[in-house]
Amino acid sequence: MSVVTPRSNTGNSTPNGPLPVVNGVPLSRRPSFNPRDQNTRLLKPFNSEDIKILLLENINQKAINILRDAGYQVETSDKALSKDELIEKVKDVHVIGIRSKTKLTEEVLTHATKLVAIGCFCIGTNQVDLAFAASRGICVFNSPFSNSRSVAEMMIAEIIMLSRQLGDRVREMHNGVWNKVSKNCYEIRGKTLGIIGYGHIGTQLSVIAESLGMNVIWYDIMPLMPLGMSKACATLDEVLQTADFITLHVPETDDTKNMIGAKELAKMKKGAFLINASRGKVVDIPALAHALRSHHLGGAAVDVYPSEPLGNGPGFVSELQDCPNTILTPHIGGSTEEAQRMIGAEVATSICRFINNGTSLKAVNFPQCDLRAIPKTDKNSLRIVNVHQNVPGVLKQINNILADYNVSKQISDSKDNIAYFMADITLLNHEDISRIYEEINGIHENIITRALF
């Protein structure tokens, strides 16, 4: 698949003469300046109004504004689409933005012949076939840290609610039942919190919990620096057997699917509490329901599920419904205005930089490549952006094509089966753009080639 991503201008000529046409699109140049540095020129593709972006699952308005301000066509939906709807929609878009419900599988992405980028406006990217996307030259961005505080604060709220059985008391009051009890209701001060997955959310939670007087232990497969007075555990079992409250903050991988099952739940202290705001398949739901109904566990809070509805409304069913002292929430751990604004800004900005400048920084499935900005005074530079199969000889072919031009800077890196190449070259004759593009695009191992002014 080869793509030129053009951007419009007020005209189709320059002092150097008429601009050439690539794939039927007149190439044009409009200097655009980086607000952070008035001495550099921000590269952009041609005909920005032809760039179509589809945002699903109620992406925050901040992201919409950033993408529209960049001149792109932006279509939005407040829900996920069915597979058939999604396949039809992706045929005509250059970028798609999703959250956690939309599944961009190989089958779906095969139909996305114009797609150059995917924005996951969330932490996880397991809903996207990352390897296949990379093989098609589709760069995937996410926001792994922006909602960390929101999730950590909800974990604290649920720890307190579970320790006081507030979920059951609230439900009883709404049903007209007055049930003032203190049995099995506790302060959290002095209790032990066990954190499984000591990343950005886990460490935020650790600091807040310690400030409330909790003892914190944690387990992670990576050697990490403990914060405050928290203590690392050598094994998962040590956390399970010691903690009064256990929170899960791990990605969904083959190793983490059902990592908390009947055997692990049985190792937890009688009356302990489990909180899952990571991924739905990390916990064996039937086993958790049994542990709650048998009163082995004192309660649980679950925000994520193995299968989740595509949109809001009735019809949600889970074996955890009506379990004692069990808080069920609809995947809202990171759903605060602050978090969604930050996520929207981070992912939308990454998408704009990739489309406009070729920058792949913060991509999850691409090599991390960037080039320094072009000076504003440089009116004759063209940036070539290329994705190709990571096999010997391709760079030699590209450099042979560029050999007759002054290459002011270039960078190349690879990840798994794909390689990413960027180069700024000086052109005195704009007619050379078509030739350079066509020759690089004609390399057998080429996946995508773009030309940026």
Automatic annotation (TrEMBL):
Keywords: NAD, Oxidoreductase. Residues 1-39 are annotated as: Disordered. Residues 15-27 have a biased composition (Low complexity). Pathway: Amino-acid biosynthesis. InterPro entries: ACT-like_dom_sf, Ado_hCys_hydrolase_NAD-bd, D-iso_2-hydroxyacid_DH_PdxB, D-isomer_2_OHA_DH_cat_dom, D-isomer_DH_CS, D-isomer_DH_CS1, D-isomer_DH_NAD-bd, NAD(P)-bd_dom_sf. It comes from the Eukaryota. Coiled coil: none annotated. Belongs to the D-isomer specific 2-hydroxyacid dehydrogenase family. This is D-3-phosphoglycerate dehydrogenase 2. It comes from Mycoemilia scoparia. Residues 1-14 have a biased composition (Polar residues). GO terms for molecular function: (S)-2-hydroxyglutarate dehydrogenase activity; NAD binding; phosphoglycerate dehydrogenase activity. Residues 184-315 form the S-adenosyl-L-homocysteine hydrolase NAD binding domain. PROSITE patterns: D_2_HYDROXYACID_DH_1 (PS00065), D_2_HYDROXYACID_DH_2 (PS00670), D_2_HYDROXYACID_DH_3 (PS00671). GO terms for biological process: L-serine biosynthetic process. The keyword Ribonucleoprotein does not apply.
